Amino acid sequence: MAVSTKKVSWYKKYASYKYYIPLANAIVPYCFWSSLIIAIVGIALGLGFAPADYQQGNSFRIIYIHVPAAMLSTSLYMAMAITSLCFLVWKVKLLPLVARSMATIGAVLTLISLVTGAVWGAPTWGTWWVWDIRLTSQLLLLFFYIGYIAFDHAIEDRQTADIFTSILAVIGIAIALLVKLSVYFFNSLHQKSTLFASGGPKIPMDMLLPLILMIVAYSLFTTGYILKKSVNLINRDRVMKHYLNQ
Fold this sequence. Notes:
246 residues
């Protein structure tokens, strides 16, 4: 019982603005600078040292932009949905601010994955777009991100907006799961996971290392953005409340 109480106290501590803001502000610079350094190394290795693919030639190099964006687009939505569900259950006021921060960067990453996927698909499949289950579900995921952001801006009352956007986020987790699982349960032009294939990654190490570095760089930048954005939202809400109370 003592251990359980300690965990609850730790959670409540860092879910409060008093502790969250200085912690986030301390972490953000490390996230941004390390993501920049790792991205430079990853891009240099991917463009300058990784060999051309035996089938796709140099067009495969868009993998270093496309794959990290695609991976994070679905992972972020699921994290946003879980964060929203926790808010609906426990009413922690920090959680919808974090979810709103995830929605912005998540929508951008989803758009990047769709655009780079189309650019990659043109020479590989012979077309920019097909109504494939993977591509279609990824497009639907973008619409859910946009819908979340639209609801957030359309509803003036903050408490009402947090509830409706949280419900929408939880509903949309089905689309995020469909994106992840579509290539395994449906006939799809899109290839299955290269990194998480059974028996290990199906890609040579000189191609794999830059990809891993780019995934890490994307993840660090995204983490830094979410922390910075959520702190900005907290400060904006404080200013608004102060202004309205005058």
